[in-house]
Amino acid sequence: MPKHQLEADSIRYQVGNRQLLTDVYLHCETGEIVGLLGRNGCGKTTLLQIIFGTKATENKHIRIDNQVYPEPYKHQTLMAYLPQQDFLPKNIRLTKIIDLYLPAPKKREVVKQDIRIQKHLHKRADELSKGERRYLELLLLLQLDVKFLLLDEPFSGVEPLYVEHIEMLLQSHLSTKGFIITDHDYRSVLRVSRRIILLADGYCRPITHEAELLRWGYVPAGKFS
Ligand SMILES: Nc1ncnc2c1ncn2[C@@H]1O[C@H](COP(=O)(O)OP(=O)(O)OP(=O)(O)O)[C@@H](O)[C@H]1O
User: Fold this and answer.
1) pLDDT by residue (tens digit) across 163-214?
2) What is the mean pLDDT of the segment spanning 117-125?
3) What is the number of structural domains in the chain?
């Protein structure tokens, strides 16, 4: 399988007088899960939206395989983004949602046959729990033929057993995809990621040891001591 490279370079973003992102650099390649951690409001969602191309900013260079893409979301095979908020249409039954979202019958079947989804196929999306919806959203995104997935809080509202299953699912797609994930369930992010990046004070800092998260004030004293 070919390896692909995603590079997000020179990203700057200002909110009012606050420089939220200051010359951020982040990269990811096929086969890699990059965990993006950071405190509330530090700019993780903003950064993912800028990379995806749906948030405009003063400066950025998004390159995939050395080609610059100002708006990656406009290219079907480059990347997909799991937003923090639900994106499934509420009043439509799951079978229909899956058919609408995935044109290929084989891919539809993978989702419909999923043991956790099977029993809910006749329900509308608003009849699922938050964690069940999150899980289905992820399954749909994983079936897309994209090189990179940006996942904003994929574990949010998801029970521990599902979290473990999601971690395995991500690992099983590494031969064709690269992932950037952010979530406050930092233990799961640490477990599943090959590299950890901490976004703090507008910069992305590589974390090579968990104790550095303590030093940067991301986790409370007593952890990793
Ligand atoms: N369009 C905007 N107008 C005003 N403030 C904004 C705008 N976009 C982002 N912000 C501010 O920028 C900061 C970063 O927001 P963002 O959602 O990216 O943070 P986050 O790191 O994802 O936070 P969380 O962990 O809570 O999800 C916040 O303080 C937010 O209020």
Assistant:
1) 989 999 999 999 999 999 999 999 999 999 999 999 999 999 999 988 899 8
2) 95
3) 1
12, 15, 24: residue to mutate for ligand 1 pocket, most atoms within 8 A of CB:
15
Residue nearest atom 28 in ligand 1 by C-alpha distance: 41
- Look up the pTM and report it: 0.94
Around ligand 1, the residues with Cβ closer than 6 Å are 15, 20, 38, 40-46
Quick one: pLDDT at residue 113? 96
| 42 alpha carbon – ligand 1 mean position (Å) | 7
CA dist., res. 181 & res. 33, Å (int): 7
Ligand 1 probe mutation, 11, 46, 81, most atoms within 8 A of CB? 46
Domain harbouring 165, CATH code: 3.40.50.300
The angle that helices 94-101 and 130-142 make with each other, rounded to 10 degrees, is: 30
Q: Find the angle CA(118)-CA(123)-CA(124) to the nearest 5 degrees.
A: 130
- The reply to whether 120 falls in a domain is no
Of 160, 121, 118, 165, the residue nearest 142 (C-alpha): 165
The larger pLDDT score, comparing residue 161 to residue 97, is at 97
Specify if 95 maps to a domain.
Answer: no
The answer as to whether 113 is a domain residue is no
Ligand 1: centre distance to CA 46 (Å): 6
Whether the pLDDT of residue 225 is over 60: the answer is no
Range of the domain at 13: 5-87+146-215
HSE-up of 191 (CA within 13 Å, CB side)?
14
Residue 57 is given by DSSP the state -
Q: Measuring from atom 10 of ligand 1, which residue has the nearest CA? A: 15
Q: Is residue 62 part of a domain?
A: yes
Nearest CA to ligand 1 atom 13: 41
